[in-house]
Amino acid sequence: MADAIQINTERLKNTLDQIRLNRSEALTIDIIEQYMGGFHQNKAVPPTDSWNAQFGKYLKAHHAELGVREIAAGQKVKVNGSLTSSSLWALNHQPAE
User: 96 in a domain, yes or no?
Assistant: First the structure.
């Protein structure tokens, strides 16, 4: 990806807190959908160019600060009738201060 994606960390923390109200695990897709207000499925886009994949890498790189832990990578999920992959995250960890 030529340019880095921009993530508002405070907004993402608030998004994760909202998801935590109802569950302790979420797929990257679910987090994106809540954070962005929807989910855009990439078709025939390599992970290096995929905003969704870059978002997942952001979660992984900032896991301690966000209070998440990847518990399963590459989970096959059907979105709009076609398969994609998504990580599963444990959300019940307290973010590092």
Answer: no
Q: Rounded CA gap, 52 and 32, in Å?
A: 8
Q: What is the DSSP string of 27-75?
A: EHHHHHHHHHSS----SS--GGG-HHHHHHHHHHHTHHHHT-EEEEEEE
Per DSSP, what are the bridge partners of residue 79? 82
- Does residue 4 sit within a domain? no
The model's pLDDT over 7-66, given as tens digits with 9 standing for 90+, comes to 999 999 999 999 999 999 999 999 999 999 988 777 778 877 888 889 999 999 999 999
Structural domain count, the chain:
1
Residue 21 DSSP one-character state: T
